[in-house]
Write a structure and sequence with these properties.
Blueprint: H1 3-15, H2 17-31, E1 38-39, H3 42-55, H4 58-73, E2 88-90, E3 95-101, E4 104-116, E5 126-139
Antiparallel strand pairs: 1-5, 2-3, 3-4, 4-5
Helix pairs in contact: 1-4, 2-3
Length: about 140
Amino acid sequence: MSHPVRAARRRIRTNHASVIEGIDACADAIAEPWDTARTTDRDAVVDGLQRSLTETGLREVLPGVLADVVDATGYDLQARPVAGPPYVVVTSRGPVLRATIDPGRLVIRFDVFEVVRDDDPELPPTYRRLEGTRLEIALE
């Protein structure tokens, strides 16, 4: 793990634990009405999570988290991040924050759903709620 990745992980866990908890609560709210542990409705996952993050105010907080994390790496952002692409994107796994810094592209994923693909390519993927929020950070 590189120094910027370690610094980013440390900053998120230290300064932004409430954001992780909030994302987790949003994902719980999306999965709560499901009659099984999974769904094949990608739009319900993505749109529901996007709506929940917006309603709770977390979507507007995420650009500030990204700016703070980049600051912790010792690098500078090329522009002020906004609550939309390319900085903040809501995917079927969860919110993703992205920033270009001097050594490369910093990608922070808050995975709250897992995409499960069947061996049969005719079957759609399913989306399963993870236990908690899995924080994935990479420098690409």
